[in-house]
Design a protein that fits this description.
Order of helices and strands: HHEEHEHEHEHEHHEEHEH
Radius of gyration: 19 Å
Shape: globular
Helix content: 25-40%
Number of helices: 10
Structural class: alpha/beta
Bound molecules: zinc ion
Largest sheet: 6 strands, parallel
Number of strands: 9
Strand content: 15-25%
Length: 343
């Protein structure tokens, strides 16, 4: 990653309509068995190619093999009963029917390691792999066993660490933990959120990232954002703790958000994946708009630590919109890259 301003996406990209119903979260697969495995791999190849054609430097699987960024990981664990569902309020925001933790949780076999190995075979570019973070996992479940959010988070942290170590072995360059819950439960973040995240990355030699956002562009999230006032200072509570942590990169939402850019200063020294693409709008940014956001961010992050990125995953968008946004991201980064190297 010697290139200045290497571009990346926060995570998911749209799935082809032959694989799953498009523009929908938790969309069911359109096939099963062997055919599904093959289709997921084909979709991963297409997603990778689209990133490369657009000019994205740090590529991912576009989360083509998972239905949802949290649920799919949990589905592979023992101790969680997917038949026994309860309605909970996710991130204090929207109700969802979720599975129940009925006994000790355990990872009996690797979850994404084969998929990561497959992606590694397809490209020599740096690859980033996303996993859910411990706090976001517990917030997407009903716990009838541990009856303690913290206890369950520590269990998940150990499980995530085992998975992450194998992903590293499979050749993943950056392992990212998605922790949108860090933007909601500030006391817990301080009490044990950062600590469990550090447990999840224990012993890793590859780079590690945490993605903290205001969520996908779904209605529950956009409605919530309207209640946050004109200035979003949520990151202010978490960034100082992350700055002091051993996480290498922090991925955050900056495009069209009300996050004051100067909050990035609190992360000084870390690599920052600056969200310069709004995932809650179908309007495709111009490269110049992306460049503008990046220039503003450069006041608070050193150029060698800036990774232009999307605000969040793009799974709910149409493929053509997502494609346009990827291209705008790469184009905007290129504008600023030239300015920096010619200065
Ligand atoms: Zn996100």
């Amino acid at each position: 990653m010697k290139k200045l301003l290497p571009t990346a996406t926060a995570g998911s990209l749209p799935k082809p309509s032959w694989l799953a119903e498009p523009e929908k979260l938790w969309s069911p697969w359109k096939m099963e068995g062997e055919a599904l495995t093959e289709a997921k791999q084909d979709a991963l190849r297409v997603s990778l190619l689209e990133q490369q054609v657009a000019g994205i430097d740090i590529v991912s699987d576009g989360e083509q093999t998972r239905q949802h960024f949290v649920t799919t990981f949990i589905e592979h664990l023992a101790g969680v009963d997917f038949e026994k569902r309860e309605t909970v309020t996710i991130r204090n925001r929207y109700e969802a029917s979720v599975p129940t933790v009925v006994s000790a949780v355990a990872r009996e076999k690797p979850v994404f390691v084969e998929d990561a190995r497959f992606l590694r075979q397809q490209t020599k570019a740096p690859i980033k792999w996303a996993l859910p973070g411990p706090m976001t996992m517990i917030d997407t479940l009903y716990d009838a066993h541990y009856k303690s959010r913290e206890k369950l988070a520590w269990e998940f942290a150990a499980i995530l660490n085992a998975e992450a170590r194998e992903l590293e072995q499979a050749g993943v360059d950056i392992i990212q933990f998605d922790e949108p819950a860090f933007n909601v439960f500030f006391d817990e973040v301080n009490d044990w959120g950062i600590a469990t995240l550090e447990r999840a990355i224990e012993g890793l030699k590859c780079q590690t990232a945490v993605h903290i956002c205001y969520g996908y562009g779904i209605k529950a999230n956009t409605d919530w954002k309207k209640t946050l006032g004109h200035e979003w200072r949520q990151y202010e509570r978490t960034f100082p703790r992350l700055q002091a942590s051993s996480i290498d990169l922090v991925s955050l939402e900056c495009q069209n958000s009300h996050v004051p850019m100067e909050l990035i200063e609190l992360l000084r020294g870390k690599k920052v994946m600056v969200g310069a693409i709004d995932v809650a709008s179908n309007r495709i940014e111009t490269p110049e708009e992306v460049a503008d956001t990046l220039r503003k961010a450069l006041q608070f992050v050193d150029a060698e630590n800036l990774c232009p990125c999307t605000n969040c995953g793009m799974a709910p968008l149409s493929r053509s919109v997502a494609r346009g946004k990827l291209k705008a991201l790469a184009g905007g980064a290129e504008i600023v890259r030239r300015e920096l190297t010619c200065a």
